[in-house]
Amino acid sequence: MPHFNPVELIIVLLIVLVLFGAGRVSKLGGELGSAVREFRKGLNGEDQPKTDQPTPQTPPTTPETKES
């Protein structure tokens, strides 16, 4: 496996920055980060909604009686 020194990494990053532009590189980085986050959630099984919290319920309604 090749080992890269810091100078080579900086050169590669500068070339990528020139080719794609700063805005696009930051957008790609954000998308890559969210993809990795979703992948890790899928591995841990956190993608299912949690049902530990009770859902709010409305009180039962009783029919009103009319007084005459």
Find the structural class using helix and strand composition.
mainly alpha
User: How many distinct helices?
Assistant: 2
Secondary-structure element string: HH
3D shape: elongated
- Rg (CA only): 28 Å
C-alpha termini separation: 92 Å
Low-pLDDT ranges: none
Average residue pLDDT? 81
Can you describe what's shown?
Helix content is 56%, strand content 0%. With 68 residues, it is mostly helical.
Offer a concise description of the structure.
The protein is built from two helices and no strands.
Keyword list:
mainly alpha, 56% helix, 68 residues
Topology:
Layout: H1 6-20, H2 22-44
Helix pairs in contact: 1-2
